[in-house]
Amino acid sequence: MRCYFSVGQLIRLMIPFCLVLSVFGTNDVHSAQMDVQIQDVKFIDANHGWVLWTLTNPDGSLNFQLAYTIDNGKSWTDHSLSLFETGDIASFAEKAEMGWFNSQSGWISIKQTRGFYFSIGTLFTTSDRGENWQRFTLPVADKTYFSDPKNGWIRTPAG
Prior knowledge:
By secondary structure, the chain is mainly beta. It has one helix at 7-23, and strands spanning 36-43, 49-56, 62-69, 77-81, 93-100, 106-112, 121-126, 134-138, 143-148, 151-155. It has one domain (7-155). Strands 1-2-3-4 form a four-stranded antiparallel beta sheet, covered by helices on one side.
């Protein structure tokens, strides 16, 4: 599915990032000294969408943030996700992706920063629009797919 955004929708999509910057005491995007990275954007229909982004901590670990809209991006609700405890090795992530089945049930797959011989990750699932998350270990973390909330598979780096 392809999503096309108007300029107004993109501006509204960036509002959570401006809020994050103001929390850190700056209104000047150019002077902000933090690494904000959009990890994934998903819409399941014209009204319901999510943005998953990360803020990099000084130690290199990531804080995950999630924003969602139920009105085609006119307004956004965002919150910090408490997916990892401080110092958890899994919080040192290379990339993250997400998927949603409906307005309540979805998943986030996080690929840890990898070494030459491994590619592991963590899977989180929710059934309450992201308020609470259940954690699972992924033996391989290249690409995650789900056909429904209970059945999914992962693709290895070799294909």
